[in-house]
Every structure is written in structure tokens, then in C-alpha cells.
């Protein structure tokens, strides 16, 4: 983390976001930053616009490298593919997937938390993406409603545990795929803070049409960060994927704890 980012983060937390945006625009000449009427951080650059509830200075190339290094490690989407992005957050990965699959491809971008979903919508709009379907719901093992937490770090909001304070629609991948008319899926990406163990129980009908999946399991949260036992998900997810005919690859040699918990599935 750069010295500027540390100082900017501190100033942002103290309520000086507009001043931070001006300083960031001077520090990062290839990007411009501003704060919208809702207080959201806008990171605008030639290739994409990212809208976030928190400080965001990543370059588009950094986001691309992250997507290719993590989610596309086992399978890299190509033009015309359909990608499902479960746990899309503010839409960083969605932008990259959208650019890769092109106008003949499709990205279904799913985010549960309403405030984060609004950022996702603005990222899609600001980046000029026309091949993305954005859906505001949690992906679990049943249709209905579920509560999600609203923590200070939006990427850690979860439907697990007892601290959920926002009610959101809950859908299975099967029912959502039926509703949206999703056919063959080249890549299913999933990063939903432990709820992956629920989500993989709800795609019996869709699973045969999914060629590749990259799923972030969250054992590392319990092991390295003192998280609750419900973050132990890897073995449950592995069993569910194998029961649905997938072959699993892992990266046990990675020095990064969360990457060692990724499961890459293919058929």
C-alpha cells in the first residue's frame, strides 16, 4: 500500500472524501476522481469507471491482472461466451469479463447488497457496458428472502451469521437461470463470503450447462482471521461440485491464503 493511499484512507474515514478525490486526481494523472451526490467514490479512467462506497484507486490494468490471475487461471473466457459473476461487488470483474466476451457474449452480474448493487449499476453505466444483465439478489439454496450484513468493508458483507441487517431476495442459480433464459455457461465465477456452500446446492439443472467454474471458498477467514466456523466451506463445495460431475483443480502451492481456497471446476 502506497504512502498516499494510507494517508488518503485515513482522511477519507475522517470525512474528507471530496478533498481526497482532488488530491488523488493530482497524484494519479492517468485517472480522475470525484464524489457523487450519494458520497460514492468514482474512479474514472479511459478504459472503465468504477463506482465504490469506499476509497478505490485501482487501475484498469490492475483489475485485468487480478481477474486473469485469479478467476481465469483455469479457463479464460473468449468472445461470445456467457459468464455468470456471482458476488459481483462494485463490478470490477464484470467490466473485464464484459470486455473479453464482447458484444456477442453475455455477463450476468449478481450482487446481493442493495448499496453495493447501486455501485455495480453505476460502474456498468459509466463503463458503457451493453452486454451485462445486473441482478440484485443473494444466491443461496432456496428462493425467498435472506438478511445480509452491512459492514464498513463492502466486500465482506455476508448472508451467514446473525448480523444481517438488510433483507434481500434470495434465489437459486437454477431459478434465476430459468428466468433469464441462460443457456450454456462458459464460466461461473463465485465470491460470496461463505454462502458458496449454499449456492452450490441450488444449481442441479444449470450445472450440466456450466463448463467451468471458479469458486472462492472461505476457510482462510476462519483459519487466518479468526472468522466463525461457518466460513469452513471448501469441502462442502468440493463435494457438491464433484457430485454434479465436475473435475476439481486447486492451487496449493500459492503463497496467498485465499487463493489456496479457490476451487476450479470443469467438465
Radius of gyration: 18 Å
Sketch the major β-sheet: 7 strands, mixed
Helix content: 25-40%
Any idea what the CATH architecture is?
Answer: 3-Layer(aba) Sandwich
What is the terminal-to-terminal distance?
A: 39 Å
Main structural class: alpha/beta
CATH topology: Rossmann fold
Mean pLDDT, as a whole number?
A: 91
CATH superfamily: Vaccinia Virus protein VP39
Number of helices in the DSSP assignment: 9
SS elements, strand count: 13
In one word, what is the shape? Answer: globular
Indicate the proportion of strand residues: 15-25%
Order of helices and strands: HHEEEHEHEHEEEEHEHEHHEE
- Order of strands across the widest beta sheet? 6-5-4-10-11-13-12
Low-confidence runs (pLDDT<50, min 5 residues)? none
CATH class reads Alpha Beta
Can you walk me through this structure?
The model has no long low-confidence stretch (mean pLDDT 91). The protein has one domain: 3-Layer(aba) Sandwich (Rossmann fold). The strands form 3 sheets. Strands 6-5-4-10-11-13-12 form a 7-stranded mixed sheet, with helices on both faces. 32% of the residues lie in helices and 22% in strands. The chain has helices at residues 3-13, 17-27, 60-71, 92-101, 114-126, 173-180, 196-199, 219-225, 234-243; strands at residues 32-35, 41-44, 49-52, 82-86, 106-111, 132-136, 138-139, 144-148, 166-171, 187-190, 212-216, 247-249, 262-266. 43% of the residues are buried.
Amino acid at each position: 500500500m502506497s504512502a498516499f493511499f494510507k494517508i488518503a484512507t485515513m482522511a477519507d474515514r475522517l470525512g474528507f472524501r471530496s478533498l481526497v478525490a482532488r488530491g488523488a486526481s493530482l497524484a494519479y494523472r492517468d485517472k480522475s476522481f470525484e464524489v457523487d451526490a450519494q458520497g460514492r467514490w468514482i474512479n474514472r479512467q479511459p478504459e472503465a469507471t468504477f463506482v465504490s462506497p469506499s476509497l478505490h484507486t485501482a487501475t484498469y490494468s490492475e483489475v485485468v491482472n487480478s481477474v486473469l490471475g485469479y478467476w481465469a487461471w483455469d479457463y479464460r473466457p473468449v468472445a461470445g461466451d456467457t459468464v455468470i459473476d456471482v458476488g459481483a461487488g462494485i463490478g470490477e470483474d464484470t467490466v473485464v469479463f464484459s470486455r473479453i466476451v464482447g458484444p456477442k457474449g453475455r455477463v450476468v452480474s449478481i450482487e446481493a447488497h442493495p448499496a453495493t448493487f447501486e455501485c455495480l449499476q453505476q460502474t456498468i453505466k459509466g463503463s458503457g457496458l451493453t452486454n451485462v444483465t445486473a441482478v440484485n439478489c443473494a444466491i443461496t439454496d432456496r428462493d425467498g428472502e435472506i438478511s445480509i450484513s452491512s459492514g464498513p468493508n463492502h466486500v465482506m458483507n455476508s448472508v451467514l451469521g446473525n448480523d444481517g441487517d438488510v433483507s434481500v431476495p434470495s434465489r437459486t442459480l437454477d431459478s434465476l437461470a430459468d428466468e433469464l433464459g441462460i443457456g450454456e455457461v462458459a464460466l461461473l465465477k463465485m465470491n460470496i463470503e461463505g454462502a458458496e456452500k449454499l449456492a452450490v446446492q441450488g444449481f442441479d439443472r444449470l450445472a450440466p450447462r456450466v463448463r467451468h467454474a471458479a469458486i472462492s471458498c472461505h476457510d482462510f477467514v476462519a483459519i487466518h482471521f479468526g472468522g466463525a466456523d461457518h466460513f469452513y466451506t471448501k469441502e462442502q463445495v468440493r463435494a457438491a461440485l464433484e457430485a454434479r460431475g465436475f473435475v476439481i483443480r486447486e492451487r496449493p502451492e500459492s503463497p496467498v491464503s485465499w487463493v489456496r481456497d479457490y476451487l476450479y471446476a470443469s467438465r
